[in-house]
Amino acid sequence: MLENYALSKVPERTKKPRQTGFTMVMDKGSSLREAADLIETCGEYVDIIKLGWATSYVFPKLKEKIDLYQSAGIPVYLGGTLFEAFVIRDQFEDYRKVLDKYGLKYAEVSDGSITLDHDRKCEYIRQLSGQVTVLSEVGSKDAAKIIPPYKWIEQMQTELDAGAWKVIGEAREGGNVGLFRDSGEVRQGLVEEILTKIPFERIIWEAPQKTQQVWFIKLLGANVNLGNIAPQEVIPLETIRLGLRGDTFDHFLSQF
Amino acid sequence: MLENYALSKVPERTKKPRQTGFTMVMDKGSSLREAADLIETCGEYVDIIKLGWATSYVFPKLKEKIDLYQSAGIPVYLGGTLFEAFVIRDQFEDYRKVLDKYGLKYAEVSDGSITLDHDRKCEYIRQLSGQVTVLSEVGSKDAAKIIPPYKWIEQMQTELDAGAWKVIGEAREGGNVGLFRDSGEVRQGLVEEILTKIPFERIIWEAPQKTQQVWFIKLLGANVNLGNIAPQEVIPLETIRLGLRGDTFDHFLSQF
Amino acid sequence: MLENYALSKVPERTKKPRQTGFTMVMDKGSSLREAADLIETCGEYVDIIKLGWATSYVFPKLKEKIDLYQSAGIPVYLGGTLFEAFVIRDQFEDYRKVLDKYGLKYAEVSDGSITLDHDRKCEYIRQLSGQVTVLSEVGSKDAAKIIPPYKWIEQMQTELDAGAWKVIGEAREGGNVGLFRDSGEVRQGLVEEILTKIPFERIIWEAPQKTQQVWFIKLLGANVNLGNIAPQEVIPLETIRLGLRGDTFDHFLSQF
């Protein structure tokens, strides 16, 4: 238990290694010192780090940062946009070498910025899952591409069948596409329909904005899997999960 | 004087320990290193630190952080939501022990997330003011609960009478409730009416957004008490107080 | 080359010292440690640092911070609002001494918050360019002051003629005035008309918001000069310049 003092009626959180209650944090260029701070301050609450999109291409001291996180027991993976950048350039084999070069044990397969035949996407998942643990992402970064719910479900299911460990519901850093409307509002019907078919422990919901985090936690509980959390929002997110911020204060109390 | 070079026609700022011109900073999970940076960079400008809502429950190295701030001469208190979390669980005595355990000299009494009979709220203020210096907060975190001005005044006055050192006008981290409309706009009539009855040195106005800070500074001068300031906004806020940012540049010059 | 691995079809970036592809970063009160982090993490990508508006007046350890950046080969200048604060107080000679005292090699001349006869503005540029390298800024911080395109061009040209090294298109920290509408949207016609007359390497476009950076990069390429970039956005900006973030992913690929 990490709690600093005793409070009754606080929902129980899962412990590491978590299958649910999972927090994926997006690092979009943190310094080594900021990474060390995150480990010290939030290490227990961070389940995996994504080096956002292709920031790993330009970040100096990349190897040091990956090693720093991984030696603290926090796995790291490279954003899906980077996978796509390699694929669209016919450099998939180079991508596999990058994963090995940096000692990465996780990878993301996505098609948010490219058009990828879904069978081919599943083939990439199959191939990569022989090398690393695969997270696959469903949903476009293009606000104009609206995918109907039955298709979200079909894609999530076939990607899990192809070997994905978990599927990610796309939202971008800004939280305004995919699962969300332009305004940042959650597409509630979509989420509810997905949950009738896909087990909730297999899904990571990207929810960078506080209102989105609150929405998922109210719907699915303290131990929903959430992603694209900014480093400085990890501590606040824990309090939302525990009903100890105004937004979910009543919600959890009424359950005891 | 901390100013690095001489400029004429700059409003005079109060010095520590301040009764007016007070800046309350919200720490919502800063690392120890960030806390040390704040002390080094803004120590002279920060009058008190609030560990936002219940972030202290989950923050590791809590004792070290509190000691770090306090040994630099900056008092620390725990967010009002935490007080409310203890009260609603009938754990008020436990809360008092937490204050002692961490060597805290200040505490907040609020009812932003719970319904608390106002006499009982004043009783808590009375009890706690025998142990620590009390800040009490008026205003709901619930955007739907509109409190009329005469009631703000009545509550502020009775809370000061009950022993509160200062009263805080609620705005949350986002600055969109209490003193502010949904849009973040200030409820100007409310503020002006409050000021006809309550001395301005006894009030801390929560003003997390720049436009709100500017509004209060233009209305009440360089040395208005402001709260919920993010650590990275302390230096910018000082320049706004001094008429050295575009927003208040003309306002202060025209007074010389 | 700083890239961590090989990717084909990535636009070529200019190298330091850059005349184009220039990134100006706004420091509005970073701690010494954050400044050191920026140098370590983004040193290759940061061409110049602006200490925003008059933050240098209140920032402790100012000399240390300027020396830290400059000894890493990154020049520093003080925000234009500070120049204006000295000028309006008839303290221009004091301003020149401040530049010398801190060993600054660059300065900004602007009239965003004061009304300055344009001939007098050019005279300041002439005088200061005998002492340091001058950046001059065109555009008002006042959202109500709309300057027509022909006047932007005329002012930019005469300021370059007076000795300015580069001219800056004003946007403030928030990106909602000058080049931009209230909403943050770019005044496209204005930018296009300016570019028919002023060479693009002589202009730094203030573009603090991501959508603005994307807009300029799509219009003017990877190596457009951009300013008012927040320290934590330098790495993300590099990926946008290189077509390695969703926003410009297709744009650059279609050019190969």
Automatic annotation (TrEMBL), chains A, B, C:
Q: Where are the transmembrane segments?
A: none
UniProt cross-references to InterPro entries, sorted A to Z: Aldolase_TIM (IPR013785), ComA_synth (IPR003830), ComA_synth_sf (IPR036112)
Family to which the UniProt record says this protein belongs = Belongs to the phosphosulfolactate synthase family.
Protein name (Swiss-Prot/TrEMBL): Phosphosulfolactate synthase
- Native species: Imperialibacter roseus
